[in-house]
């Protein structure tokens, strides 16, 4: 049996005892040129490129078949064609924005600002809040609307205040000016003056935004209010005008969860205090910003110059066909996914994954039963939650119905707006109905995985179930280190610092004893401190935010620990063979490290450190240093780069 390890990627001059990531991936890093259209590139991105090509082939084959009007196949082909018709897009220029800008011109009161935001929401133009329909964190048997902070054009509130982002902040008004000029919204000095007013208003909005660490706190971001409570929180805000313009069903906001109440209070004050002309400037900018990717080349180029080159250091925009595929994925993802699964996901891959998941769950069960720091009652609840996990593998059992979505091959911006309205309507229609436990929140062709605490489910789309994550024909050790670690990671999210606050039914409820929670928090704080001291090789001098990344780091640590235990379960009764000169345990850790093979441009690495809850790729691979099993597998000794004294190794599960 082949090992499933890419020997050509490794650097034999680097010892795994010193740098597991560098040993397994070092030659690939040295020899691979970063694609010009990427800020970060690695194992995930290579698989995404492969899936992207598969999807393009599916789209073009569907279109070539001249499907009948109104069919999903025709919609897929027409949507892609509308994006690829560059001549028509150039001819139209900024005219697709006309109806939106006319609506802004008519705004004369704060209530009309809210009405415009409701209308624009349906077209995919984000406003002051972003409404999200999801299961209620404290009552998972029902859907409710969450109100998420929004309203800014930079990636995060820190960009408006943190000295390390000063260069980006300085470049931003010029970008807004150029975009408003290119689209004909303003001319000459008027564009610059409007841009200054927009940035000033966004700076005010950002001042009330919660930071990334606060936003991942499941308890802090849960404030349930009824309509009276929302009115009290946002005095003077005309939610009726907003909901009517958004075509929301009656009662949609009868109860909402304010994720960041401070932002809602500040939003209400800003609507009352900021002059209408400035709100009109801001609304025009929101329209231009949201729809820029679908306009003429000059607008697309300026949009990329700021958000690609300046923010992430990416020198080249992605090929047009790739961006077209992305649009189809966003609007008709499951329609394409159904065809993708038929072509690229063999049934035996799903069968093997079922076995892997079962062994990971069993490994977690054994771990919980023997966990010395966890008390009897907490252990009972943890095992009940583990036993209630729902794994979803490959693709949904029921495909989404796109029959009501209208697509016109000659109307790109209209297609974008209608696709957004379709999603808004689809989600708002959930309110008051039964929870759909069969719904997927990723398409089968997505190279990723997720844990959903409200449904207590772990989900693995088909596209991630291929090398280096999963190879149905490869050695068990590498599969358990790769996809097994990912499975363990997602299960681990059910028991990380936030996921552990949800019970087996997906409800936010404290099921921990005070002592057990203190034991868990102590270990989590040690992991935070460990990562606070680290910096990625891609962004030297910039430290990781351990508090921002702690949930994902717990997931990684749990994935590694339990993935290894599951591998041992799979080999019970037999000795693992030596393959490619490596023991089974060594191959396991190689399998983990090659999953995180990758690199990033420095600007992108810095940006991600500010907003991404995941640690950099090299640090995720080298999290193995916390495992005694890793030290034993490679005979790591004091003085080696990966050595961690036994009493400093963090082990939660």
Descriptive key words:
653 residues; alpha/beta; 26 helices; Neutral endopeptidase, domain 2; Collagenase (Catalytic Domain)
Can you characterise this structure?
It comes from Knoellia locipacati. GO terms for molecular function: metal ion binding; metalloendopeptidase activity. Residues 448-647 form the Peptidase M13 C-terminal domain. The protein is α/β, with parallel strands linked by helices and 653 residues long. Among the domains are: 7-33 and 345-389 and 456-648, Collagenase (Catalytic Domain) (3-Layer(aba) Sandwich); 109-275, Orthogonal Bundle (Neutral endopeptidase, domain 2). The chain contains 26 helices and 9 strands. It has helices at residues 20-31, 43-64, 72-84, 86-92, 98-105, 110-122, 166-182, 189-207, 212-215, 227-233, 239-245, 261-273, 276-291, 297-312, 320-344, 347-370, 376-387, 412-428, 476-481, 483-493, 514-532, 546-570, 584-595, 602-611, 617-621, 628-634, and strands spanning 40-42, 129-136, 139-149, 224-226, 255-258, 390-394, 450-452, 457-461, 598-600. It has a 4-stranded mixed β-sheet. A 3-stranded mixed β-sheet has the order 6-8-7, covered by helices on one side. Strand 7 (450-452) and strand 8 (457-461) form a beta hairpin. Helix 8 packs across helix 13 and helix 21 packs across helix 22 (546-570). The chain is globular, with a radius of gyration of 25 Å. The protein starts with 19 loop residues before the first helix and ends in a 19-residue tail after the last helix. The mean pLDDT is 96.
């Amino acid at each position: 049996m082949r090992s499933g390890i890419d020997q050509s990627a490794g650097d034999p001059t680097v010892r795994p005892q010193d740098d597991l990531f560098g040993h397994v991936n070092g030659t690939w890093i040295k020899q691979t040129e970063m694609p010009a259209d990427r800020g970060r590139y690695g194992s995930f991105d290579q698989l995404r490129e492969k899936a992207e090509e598969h999807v393009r082939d599916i789209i073009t084959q569907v279109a070539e078949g001249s499907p009948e009007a109104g069919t999903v196949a025709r919609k897929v082909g027409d949507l892609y064609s509308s994006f690829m018709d560059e001549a028509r897009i150039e001819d139209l220029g900024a005219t697709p924005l006309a109806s939106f800008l006319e609506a802004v011109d008519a705004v004369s009161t704060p209530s009309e600002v809210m009405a415009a935001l409701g209308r624009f929401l349906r077209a995919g133009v984000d406003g002051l809040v972003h409404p999200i329909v999801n299961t209620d964190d404290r009552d998972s048997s029902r859907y409710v609307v969450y109100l998420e902070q929004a309203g800014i054009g930079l990636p995060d509130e820190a960009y408006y205040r943190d000295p390390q982002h000063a260069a980006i902040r300085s470049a931003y008004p010029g970008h807004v000016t150029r975009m408003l000029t290119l689209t004909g919204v303003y001319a000459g000095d008027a564009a610059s003056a409007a841009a200054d007013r927009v940035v000033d208003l966004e700076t005010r909005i950002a001042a009330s935004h919660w930071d990334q660490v606060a936003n991942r706190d499941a308890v802090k971001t849960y404030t349930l209010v009824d309509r009276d409570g929302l009115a009290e929180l946002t005095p003077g805000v005309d939610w009726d005008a907003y909901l009517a313009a958004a075509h929301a069903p009656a009662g949609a906001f009868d109860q909402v969860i304010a994720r960041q109440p401070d932002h809602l209070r500040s939003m209400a004050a800003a609507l009352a205090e900021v002059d209408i002309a400035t709100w009109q400037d801001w609304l025009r900018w929101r329209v231009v910003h949201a729809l820029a990717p679908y306009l003429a080349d000059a607008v697309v180029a300026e949009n990329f110059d700021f958000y690609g080159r300046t923010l992430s250091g990416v020198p080249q925009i992605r090929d047009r066909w790739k961006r077209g595929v992305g649009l189809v994925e966003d609007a008709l993802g499951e329609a394409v996914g159904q065809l993708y699964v038929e072509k690229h996901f063999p049934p035996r891959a799903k069968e093997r994954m079922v076995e892997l998941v079962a062994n990971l769950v069993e490994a977690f069960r054994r771990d919980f039963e023997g966990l010395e720091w966890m008390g009897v009652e907490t252990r009972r609840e943890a095992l009940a939650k583990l036993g209630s996990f729902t794994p979803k593998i490959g693709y949904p059992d029921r495909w989404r119905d796109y029959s009501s979505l209208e697509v016109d091959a000659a109307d790109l911006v209209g297609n974008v707006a209608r696709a957004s309205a379709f999603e808004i309507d689809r989600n708002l229609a959930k309110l008051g109905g039964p929870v759909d436990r069969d719904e997927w929140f990723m398409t089968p062709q997505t190279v990723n995985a997720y844990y959903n605490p409200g449904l207590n489910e772990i989900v693995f789309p088909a596209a991630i179930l291929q090398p280096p994550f999963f190879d149905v024909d490869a050695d068990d050790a590498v599969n358990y280190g790769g996809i097994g670690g990912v499975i363990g990671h997602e299960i681990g999210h059910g028991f990380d610092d936030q996921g552990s606050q949800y019970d087996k039914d997906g409800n936010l409820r404290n099921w921990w004893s005070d002592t057990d929670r203190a034991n868990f928090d102590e270990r989590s704080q040690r992991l935070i401190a460990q990562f606070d001291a680290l910096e990625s090789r891609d962004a030297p001098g910039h430290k990781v935010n351990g508090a921002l990344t702690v949930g994902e780091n717990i997931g990684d640590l749990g994935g590694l620990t339990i993935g290894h235990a599951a591998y041992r379960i799979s080999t019970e009764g037999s000795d693992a063979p030596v393959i490619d000169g490596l023991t089974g345990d060594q191959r396991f850790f190689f399998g983990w490290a090659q999953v995180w093979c990758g690199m990033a441009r420095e600007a992108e690495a810095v940006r991600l450190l500010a907003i991404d809850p995941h640690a950099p790729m090299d640090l995720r691979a080298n999290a193995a240093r916390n495992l005694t099993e890793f030290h034993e597998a490679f005979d790591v000794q004091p003085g080696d780069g990966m050595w961690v004294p036994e009493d400093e190794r963090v082990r939660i599960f």
